[in-house]
Amino acid sequence: MNIMEIGTKQQRYAIVDLEATSASADAAIIQVGIVIVENQTIIERYETDVNPYQPLDDHIINLTGLTDQRLANAPGFEQVAGDIYELIKDCIFVAHNVKFDANLLAEQLFFEGYELRTPRVDTVELAQVFFPTLEKYNLSDLSEALDLDLSDAHTAIADAQATALLLIKLQEKMRALPRLVLENILTYSDSLLFESALVIREALAEASLDMAAYDELAGLVVRKWQSYGTERRLSQDFATNLALLELEERPKQMIFAQAIAEHYADPRPVFMEGQAGLGKTYGYLLPLLEADPDRKLILCLPTKILQDQVYQQEAAKIGEIFHINAVNLKGPQNYISLDKFYETLQREDSNRLINRYKMQLLVWLTETETGDLSEIKQQQRYQAYFEEIKHNGDIRETALFYDLDFVKRLQDKVQTSRLIITNQAYFLTRVEDDKAFAEGHILVIDEAQKFFLALEQFSRRTLNLTETLQALEKRIGSGELALLERRLMESLSFELSQAAEAYYQGQGETLSELTLAKIRQDLRELESQDVSDLAELFLPTYTDFWFSQHYDRMREMRQTDLHAARLDFLHFPDFLPETTKTYFISATLTISDQVALPHLLGYQDYLASYLPIDKPHNQKVWLLPEMPDVSQIEDEDYAHIMAGKIAELTELAVPIVILTTSRRALFALSDALDNYHLKHLCQDKNGTASQVKKRFERGDSSILLGTGGFWEGVDFAKQDKQLLVITRLPFDNPSDHFIKKLTEKLRFEGKTFFKDYELPMTTLRLKQAIARTNRHARQKSAVLLMDSRIVHKSYSSAIQEALEQQYPIEVKDFESSLGAIRTFFETD
């Protein structure tokens, strides 16, 4: 085949999948599946078993379903080699991970006297380029995401059929793209494996010339911002709005929505308490969007994960039905800078992965309306490139891509959208810089019990000291500084390095007063943009400074952080511009008899509203009294004991979510499960929190290990049966700066930190975690709390009584609990 001619006419593709005795170079073929595609149509199929003349191992038998008995009756490869060669010799060879299939088949054909010289195309890389927002690119995940037929995975013909359908999807996607985009992609296509670029060249001849949906500047093609026209008025009747959204009515949601509407006229801020699972998001969005069509509604959520979830689900549904424009607002660093990306396109990179990212982003820009880089799920393979193209918030009219700048477009969209969805951390940053952002609008702060912590985090600053010292040394050695400026930077670098060295040697984690005074003096005299981050960290506002370390998984090295904080607590009413109405939605308003959430936020005059709490009929909690005291045992030993229990729990054959309270405990338990050969998904080991959650819900594994946001911010609604295992009571870390600060505040007010704050907050975290696995009436959720302190400690009765108000509880040994949980799941 003359490769130079490829791309000038429709080609014939042979999509090949092989099953073999192993994945090694000396494997023997045991099954061949071939699908011929021409003109984006499947025109021929070929399949055969092949006798390898050797026994199969158990892994291959389980994977493929083939047996020695079946293959004993199959032809040897020498009997089918001629037919296979004649079928594919004039085709382009296509496979999912083409290197293995093409090399193995070519070698086997060569031994039989046939030399296969066809061009090769790899659908893995093409899928990564042309479907840039997917998380995984194995055939089974692509089949699910793109609705390909893979009904009998790991048989050669089924995998070849699915790969053929994938190729056709890729061809359709390429032809639908603007021609200019394909031309730009081909600029970097030499970085693709083998001859995969041939499919792109062929599509180029038929690529779309329609640019109506896109903007183009300097060769970059960007999707136009879409917006709804005239809004459709919501009904004053909440049930009618639900019906229009095709949602079921829930009695408690109706009560909640009615209370939201009734409290709108009250001038005071409203604090509303309601248990998880009542459908509160629609419960406040619909009545408040209806209340005043001329007001914007700002929804402030605790995490970016929840922010994206509400934007993609509830806001999208409301926009589709009622034509209400919504914007998903984050900090500038979350978005791509078109100017920075364009600069990388102008240079030659020898790194094949970077060039593939360039191709991927060229496709993504034709799809994204936000420019939010989190939509690209495989950044971790070369995070440094994405750091390079992030936006820094600087929008200049002189910039080449000023008119298309995503942060500018975002700001424009804020002005024309009635629903603004953001996160608590960014909201605080935004209103500090721009008081008018919230002025006169309706504000809803959801998960308000976390807002107090967000307010505290806002009063801190953190700097990566490792990177800062490296940048200082580079600047000092540049030879571009005046003598005085260089001396001041040297002094600054010395003081910071000495303080960090003392921290490494265990001589203290805080800065001394003398060191602090020297650093501030140097910064006052420098007045240089090179040290602007340090200058912000050492503002007089901040009085406490301390070090910590974290492990950078990308660079595979430990990094040192320097933190700054203020001693006083921020009062939100002093911080917030005047709004039309402010709602705080919380799982709890009363932390304890002595501490209430409104008071922690600085409110004295407010309206508190409570909804009745019902015990769910489809959820139950078991407590284990015989587990060892976690405070008296090493993490690894406790993890080993838990892993043994979890191995027995797998006999229930239901999905299991396991929560730990720290990354150290998380990884210790993961290692222990590995020792038991229990397949599981571990947060930060097998992907981010959102990635492992999706894989878990997809059924990649029946065991999920999580920490952090899994306690409060992640719902599990897809499995009808689920077991939640809580390994430890979620107490705060007593060495945390905020906890120390709050302890002093409560002591000054004559209150007790543990009794009045820590214990009730721990109970609240337990309730929230438990509620996350009970999201609809058809779901049955069992909860196993393995920390025996909830049974034996002096404070155990307080936690148990609080939980019993909401959940049925049993205290049983493990074997009895296992039987009771089995009965619970088997009972209708």
From TrEMBL:
<dbReference type="InterPro" id="IPR006054">
    <property type="entry name" value="DnaQ"/>
</dbReference>
<keyword id="KW-0347">Helicase</keyword>
<dbReference type="InterPro" id="IPR014013">
    <property type="entry name" value="Helic_SF1/SF2_ATP-bd_DinG/Rad3"/>
</dbReference>
<dbReference type="InterPro" id="IPR036397">
    <property type="entry name" value="RNaseH_sf"/>
</dbReference>
<dbReference type="GO" id="GO:0004386">
    <property type="term" value="F:helicase activity"/>
</dbReference>
<keyword id="KW-0540">Nuclease</keyword>
<keyword id="KW-0067">ATP-binding</keyword>
<feature type="short sequence motif" description="DEAH box">
    <location>
        <begin position="446"/>
        <end position="449"/>
    </location>
</feature>
<dbReference type="InterPro" id="IPR011545">
    <property type="entry name" value="DEAD/DEAH_box_helicase_dom"/>
</dbReference>
<comment type="similarity">
    <text>Belongs to the helicase family. DinG subfamily. Type 2 sub-subfamily.</text>
</comment>
<keyword id="KW-0378">Hydrolase</keyword>
<comment type="function">
    <text>3'-5' exonuclease.</text>
</comment>
<dbReference type="InterPro" id="IPR006310">
    <property type="entry name" value="DinG"/>
</dbReference>
<dbReference type="GO" id="GO:0004527">
    <property type="term" value="F:exonuclease activity"/>
</dbReference>
<feature type="domain" description="Helicase ATP-binding">
    <location>
        <begin position="239"/>
        <end position="500"/>
    </location>
</feature>
<protein>
    <recommendedName>
        <fullName>3'-5' exonuclease DinG</fullName>
        <ecNumber>3.1.-.-</ecNumber>
    </recommendedName>
</protein>
<keyword id="KW-0269">Exonuclease</keyword>
<dbReference type="Pfam" id="PF00929">
    <property type="entry name" value="RNase_T"/>
</dbReference>
<dbReference type="InterPro" id="IPR013520">
    <property type="entry name" value="Ribonucl_H"/>
</dbReference>
<dbReference type="Pfam" id="PF00270">
    <property type="entry name" value="DEAD"/>
</dbReference>
<dbReference type="Pfam" id="PF13307">
    <property type="entry name" value="Helicase_C_2"/>
</dbReference>
<dbReference type="InterPro" id="IPR027417">
    <property type="entry name" value="P-loop_NTPase"/>
</dbReference>
<dbReference type="InterPro" id="IPR006555">
    <property type="entry name" value="ATP-dep_Helicase_C"/>
</dbReference>
<keyword id="KW-0547">Nucleotide-binding</keyword>
<dbReference type="InterPro" id="IPR012337">
    <property type="entry name" value="RNaseH-like_sf"/>
</dbReference>
